[in-house]
From TrEMBL:
GO cellular component, one term: integrator complex
Stated name of the protein: Integrator complex subunit 5 C-terminal domain-containing protein
Organism, as annotated: Oppiella nova
Residue stretches spanning the membrane: none
InterPro entries membership: INTS5 (IPR040316), INTS5_C (IPR029444)
Domain Integrator complex subunit 5 C-terminal intervals: 58-204
Protein's GO biological process: snRNA 3'-end processing
Length: 242
């Protein structure tokens, strides 16, 4: 009580205490649109998560996020099901597709989920959210196989690839450069690259990459970039790649 009384509230009914020190105050007088208000609200919620969730608790937070976003936890154990199922597995495949679409729509409707995944990734706990990553990657891969380039679609794929390469789920070399060159590729080329990335994620999750070369997963990327973007960037990416 004494600590509460020590704050000088002045004429205001409530005191605005910033969640993060040395952060510039938000000028609420200049928020004239719903979009600006939404951005501020998202930032405040994200700041609250940063302050409340410690690094040691990030694993539990990641698992809780999966439980909140994924509609069916019973099928989360089988991350990478058979893409060519036999008789009797079609029901599982249908549920998996529906789950992937549900998760993708959730991220589209709630952009804050991207920020939360980035927060989890900085704590090196994104591997506990592979159900979400797998769903987003699968939907993106299917989407690029049947569409053309648009600014919105490119941004979603760029954000996903940047998240994976910056948090160690994908090797920084060469995948950290893929997001920057997507706008210069054809849709089918993007689909081929995402197919190889999905295969890498599947094999790495199943523990099949020990002692293996990365080349089988980047060969098509190398050919596509050699055709579209020959030059210093291509040399820097693939020089010395094993």
């Amino acid at each position: 009580m004494k600590e509460n009384c020590s704050y000088d509230l002045g004429n205001s009914k409530s005191r605005k205490i910033p969640l993060i020190s040395n952060k510039p105050d938000i000028d609420f007088n200049h928020l004239n649109s719903n979009e600006e208000t939404l951005i501020v609200n998202q930032q405040l919620v994200l700041d609250a998560f940063r302050c409340c969730v410690k690094k040691k608790d990030m694993t539990s937070f990641a698992k809780l996020l999966v439980q909140c976003v994924s509609p069916d936890l019973l099928f989360n154990e089988n991350l990478w099901g058979d893409e060519d199922p036999r008789d009797g597995q079609l029901q599982s495949l249908r549920i998996t597709i529906e789950r992937d679409l549900f998760i993708w729509r959730a991220f589209n409707a709630n952009p804050l989920l991207w920020d939360l995944c980035e927060l989890i990734g900085k704590a090196e706990c994104l591997n506990h959210c592979l159900v979400l990553i797998r769903a987003l990657m699968t939907v993106q891969r299917t989407h690029w196989a049947s569409t053309s380039l648009t600014k919105e679609n490119i941004f979603e794929t760029q954000r996903l690839l940047t998240l994976l390469s910056s948090t160690g789920i994908l090797p920084a070399e060469p995948f950290s450069h893929v997001a920057a060159v997507l706008s210069q590729l054809q849709a089918w080329e993007v689909s081929c690259i995402l197919n190889d990335i999905c295969k890498y994620l599947k094999d790495s999750t199943l523990g099949q990459l020990e002692g293996q070369s990365l080349k089988p997963y980047v060969e098509r990327l190398r050919i596509i970039m050699a055709h579209n973007l020959p030059g210093p960037l291509f040399v820097n990416i693939f020089r010395g790649l094993k």
